[in-house]
Input
Amino acid sequence: MPEQKLPFVQIRKIKAGIEQSEGQGARVVRTIGSRAIEDVLDPFLLLDEFNVKLPSRFSDHPHRGFTTVTYMLEGTFTHRDNAGHSGTIPKGGVQWMNAGRGIIHSETPGPGPVNRGLQLWINLAAKDKMSKPDYQEYAADQLPKKKLDNGAHLTVVAGKSHGIESPIKLTTLVQYTHIEDLPKGEEYEEVIPEGYQGFIYVISGKGEILENEDDKSRAINTKAIMIFNETKEGSRLRIRSVGDKPLEFAIVAGTPLKEPVSRYGPMVMNTNEEIEQAFLDYHSGKFTST
Output
């Protein structure tokens, strides 16, 4: 019998990013984070592409109940928190910050004219929301990479893909890959595990997302996101580069937590009462690492 091919992911929607102000003078392109779509992207809460230069910055602000992931595409960003931790994320590096029960931090761009990257917020399960804050930080040469036969370059930021696996230890299960230099006319395919849902975000270039073996496709442009449904079995996500410049994009998928979400600004908990308590704790100085 012929080998049965995996189905394609089911496209839910394609949506252009919206540029908006954030922090002190910074601009971001936001594709996840509006009320209109956040309920279909469990466990993902926010995705921003930022491009910030001094004097713009993100001064001290609190977080509780989720993980922030900062992945640098160009330039650097320096992080400092109220527990005494600090560090600079270089180009191609990642910081995986578990805010847990609460942390206050600032994020400042490097001295160069371009400091560009992606920030992703990932929800934590109720049992993990009050865990001790911690960090995982890796430079570009510490993340697994692979040059593919079609000329594209793959970096596995979290999870595993194409036979290579990230060193990031996961609380919420996530697969996060970054693909660069996919030439015009070439295709990239990634297998999304059973029970995952997520998105593909186009950083630059133009693509077509394949929907079936008959070459039916949907167009996706720069700074746009395609959201796909939770997979019932392992499924294929296939994208073709069609623009004049090589295609660059990120694919992120994870297991939905399927828990109640109460969210207000930088606090994400399960109930409104927990949100109220988070702000009480923050204003009374209880956001520490101990």
